[in-house]
Specification:
InterPro entries: GTP-CH-I_C/QueF, GTP-CH-I_N, GTP_CycHdrlase_I, GTP_CycHdrlase_I_CS, GTP_CycHdrlase_I_dom. It catalyses: GTP + H2O = 7,8-dihydroneopterin 3'-triphosphate + formate + H(+). This protein has seven helices and seven strands. The longest helix is centred in the last third of the chain and has 16 residues, at about 120-135. The protein is an alpha+beta fold. Strand 2 (about 65-75) and strand 3 form a beta hairpin. The protein has helices spanning about 5-15, 30-40, 100-110, 120-135, 145-150, 170, 175-185, and strands at about 55, 65-75, 80-90, 95-100, 115, 135-145, 160-170. The strands form two sheets. Strands 5-2-3-6-7 form a five-stranded mixed sheet, with helices on both faces. Strands 1-4 form a two-stranded antiparallel sheet.
């Protein structure tokens, strides 16, 4: 990450909007933004699958593993403003091939920490799990509020965008998919 270049660009943006980047309240803003970008874009060039440590369970558990309400924050690549919400990630293990629960949340976090589209985020999480764990199926549902719809443009705060990605058995078996979706919607 080229933080010096970001700082220079932020100074130019401040000039372009009619501000003085040398006034007291803005002097450190370019540095702060560069540091923030380093953090919120730390998923660029990272493989989310690296988090999916695989272990085998002797009992060969082959029932649903679902983590609901994984919070995430990302940045829309169209306007560079945040979108945030929660992800629900489930899979049906095959042959006792499991991963740690926190590893699924780390996959979501890694994919979210790059300029992103919600649709791509959803599909990327599902693909990383499907390709690495090779389960019977994967389902990912993402609910998010987009600041580009809240603070600009149409200005509709509280509106949610919901995307889903289904792989394997969840793509081919409507009953299995409906069961998982009903569990996700349980309060």
């Amino acid at each position: 990450m080229d933080k010096d270049r970001i700082e220079k660009a932020v100074r130019e943006i401040l000039y372009a909007v009619g501000e003085n980047p040398d006034r007291e309240g803005l002097i450190d803003t370019p540095r702060r933004i560069a540091k923030m970008y380093e953090e919120i874009f730390s998923g660029i060039d990272q493989d989310p699958a690296k988090h999916l440590e695989i272990y085998f369970q002797e009992e060969k558990y082959e029932e649903l593993v679902l983590i609901k309400d994984i919070p995430f924050y990302s940045v829309c690549e169209h306007h560079l403003v945040p979108f945030f919400g929660k992800a629900h990630v489930g899979y049906l293990p095959k042959d006792g091939k499991l991963t740690g629960l926190s590893k699924l949340a780390r996959v979501v976090e890694t994919v979210a920490k790059r300029p992103q589209l919600q649709e791509r985020l959803t599909a990327s999480v599902a693909d990383a799990i499907q390709n690495t764990l090779e389960p019977y199926g994967v389902i990912v549902v993402v609910e998010a509020e987009h600041m580009c719809m809240t603070m600009r443009g149409v200005k509709k705060p509280g509106s949610k965008t919901i995307t889903s990605a289904v792989r394997g058995v969840f793509a081919s078996d409507a009953k299995a998919r409906a069961e998982v979706l009903s569990i996700i919607n349980m309060k």
